[in-house]
Amino acid sequence: GQNIDQPTEMTATEGAIVQINCTYQTSGFNGLFWYQQHAGEAPTFLSYNVLDGLEEKGRFSSFLSRSKGYSYLLLKELQMKDSASYLCAVRGGGNKLTFGTGTQLKVEL
Amino acid sequence: DARVTQTPRHKVTEMGQEVTMRCQPILGHNTVFWYRQTMMQGLELLAYFRNRAPLDDSGMPKDRFSAEMPDATLATLKIQPSEPRDSAVYFCASGREVGGNQPQHFGDGTRLSIL
């Protein structure tokens, strides 16, 4: 089975940097995804990691350490629109994802 | 941009009634997923299809839920009879199972309330 842990909520200031952590224990691993979900909307894909290291996409970066079962999502130059839930998801067999319960990020002025 | 389309967007009905939710996956995607999202449990996988064949429905209560793909452009999730505890947002997602980095794309969901 899969077990995924993320903090329930975080608060950060506009313009700052925030790091959202995700730890996982899985019976199989074929990649880790981060999704963003605004209230009342669908999850949207942010990033994918399958090898150890950092993947950078504009203001968002994601890091993976397979040996530690650990990932983080780094958001730079925070904007008010970044207030959302951030979901960590691990892919096991096939294309099947197991999601964490999400981290609710609140960006304040 | 291609999108996953779900209908209806909202559904309110009384317990005991049949509920049918529909999903049109993105053209060319060969995997389809049904998820349920609640505040307490987060996103839970209910069923998973590859090339229209059901691969995994272990997350779905078999006595009242059923999922089918009558053709490549339509996936359905049915609840019969519905119960108040089924109230949740139901998402459909589709993806291409080629290459490791292909994400699942989600529809806007069906917000279901069972009274």
> What percentage of residues of chain A falls in helices of 4 or more residues?
under 10%
**Rg over C-alpha atoms of chain B, rounded to the nearest angstrom:** 14 Å
Strand content of chain A: over 45%
Radius of gyration of chain A, in angstroms, nearest whole number: 13 Å
3D architecture notes:
The complex is a heterodimer of chains A (109) and B (115). Chain A is an all-beta fold. In chain A, 0% of the residues lie in helices and 59% in strands. In chain A, the strands form two sheets. In chain A, strands 2, 4, 5, 9, 10 and 11 form a six-stranded mixed sheet that branches. Chain B has no helices and eleven strands. Chain B has strands at 5-7, 10-13, 19-24, 31-38, 42-50, 53-56, 65-71, 74-79, 88-95, 105-106, 110-114. In chain B, the strands form two sheets. In chain B, strands 2, 4, 5, 6, 9, 10 and 11 form a seven-stranded mixed sheet that branches. Chain B has a four-stranded antiparallel sheet with strand order 1-3-8-7, with no helix packed on it. The termini of chain B are far apart. Chains A and B meet through strand 5 and strand 10 of A and strand 4, strand 5 and strand 10 of B.
